[in-house]
Design brief:
It is a single chain. The protein is about 70% helix and about 0% strand. The chain has a domain at about 15-225 and about 310-335: Farnesyl Diphosphate Synthase, CATH 1.10.600.10. The chain is an all-alpha fold. A two-stranded antiparallel ribbon has the order 1-2.
Length: about 350
Amino acid sequence: MGPAAKPAKTKSGAPHAVDRLAALLAEDLAAVDAIIHQYLASPVGTIPNLAAHLIDAGGKRIRPLITLAAARLVGGGGDGPRKLAAAVEFIHSATLLHDDVVDVSSMRRGKKSANVVWGNSASVLVGDFLFARSFNLMVETGDIQVLDILARAASVIAEGEVMQLAAANDAETTRERYMEIVAAKTAALFAAAARSGAVAAGRAGPEATALETYGRELGLAFQLVDDALDYGGASETMGKNAGDDFREGKVTLPVIFARDAGDETERAFWRRVVGGERTDDDFHRAVALVKRHNAIALTIDAARAHAQAARDALKALPANAYREALEALPEFVVERAY
């Protein structure tokens, strides 16, 4: 098992919701980590070494925790949800490996990204290996419904990444288009992680639908906060370099708010820098414009609305320790911005 993520703290010094959820699911999570490392095994040494570089880098396992908690909340548990949780982590890790190649990223989870250490080709191919392993795990559950849920999610994530690539350097990207991209590339896996846990527990009806809504809204909040942090966070907070979205020509919600509130001179600035003509000082000006128009706060407000929608989705589900832990997660997601 790789090194655990450092326990996060709230402003009051209490453990964050994600750490409380991990403690509640400690036995399940340990089993998931064992499955992950079992399925990373390969006679091709680069595969486990490169994959472990990312997977053991201290990620909080939020998505697999959601799968496990969803199953426990509705009365399930055991090997099925654990294998699905490992599959969810493999899908997530594969997308990160591919994203870092596409985005030419140099930092992930506070360390050099795998593409910097091993090169682009190895990162892409190991990402493919992780996708394949995720399907091995899904098939082993023997549940065609969960296979369908996660397979569809993998397709939607890929579509979202291609949509984002097509929208790169397009300074006129609308808020609606941006949210469509976020829903596909980020929220879809959160939604599938939650729904598959309930379905694996034999609750494919209203409970699964409520949990799917919870996951989707939580995923939207998560991505909005990430996008806000790119213009107002520290590298050690994010685990990646501040300004990466800006340098990649991505139009995210803080940019959309600042662009739409700005005058023609400011809009011309956004067209130039998003289009690829950037100087060394442009990121500082971009941050100043985002702050001038209160765009970070507006983005966090939008994230907070999705976080509340996630909590609301749980109201019809059984009241127990797992529901309580899931209800606390959205606040953790939003608190990352502070």
